[in-house]
């Protein structure tokens, strides 16, 4: 619901909660699979509204950073992954709270390194969102364009991550039972999020997302340190 309403927040909200009940490595891969299912439903809806000038370098950077992140997933201890997820989510909430939207112009030069960092975080932690969310919400004044560009980035980047996980042999580790449980809930939330955005617009998505992200990040950090 959060993802469809704001354009971001699925992995950021889901990962801190998933690691409470399943192994962090499995949670990272499961999150990417569920994100891909959501992408299949929303691809056509947001394709035309996305900002291609920013989207292309963001995705190019993600192609560079994701394989490095997938490799890091193999070597990082589970507790470290949980700790980094909590820190990453809380940091994104903090910077969104502190930073306002700029004039909507420029900012394309930073898209490539931002995409690379997002790919690195996505491959290793399952949360590519923080760098891209902060970048777009601070450089794109139009909430609709920012939302569509975010969704398109996550739609394609989850496919990049899944390719890396498949090559690394990690897709087979995801339990089919978890997918059976997760996909229906995902689709219901996705439908509800689109409905809420169409009815209420993008004026409230920032505040709602901040509260949800701060809550999820705090839970993940407490769990990692406990």
Name some characteristics of this structure:
single chain, 226 residues, mainly alpha, 10 helices, globular
Global morphology: globular
What pattern of helices and strands is seen along the backbone?
HHHHHHHHHH
Low-confidence segments, given as residue ranges, are none
Structural class: mainly alpha
Average pLDDT across residues? 82
Distance between the termini: 29 Å
Number of domains: 1
- Taken as a percent bin, the fraction of beta residues is under 5%
- Tell me how many strands there are: 0
Rg of Cα set: 16 Å
Sketch the major β-sheet: none
Work out the helix count. 10
User: Percent helix among the residues?
Assistant: over 70%
Task: Note down, in words, how this protein is organized.
This protein is mostly helical. Helices cover 80% and strands 0% of the residues. It has 10 helices and no strands. The model has no long low-confidence stretch (mean pLDDT 82).
Compact summary:
The protein has helices at 2-6, 10-18, 24-47, 52-75, 78-98, 111-125, 129-139, 143-167, 176-200, 205-225. Helix 3 crosses helix 8 (143-167). The radius of gyration is 16 Å and the shape is globular.
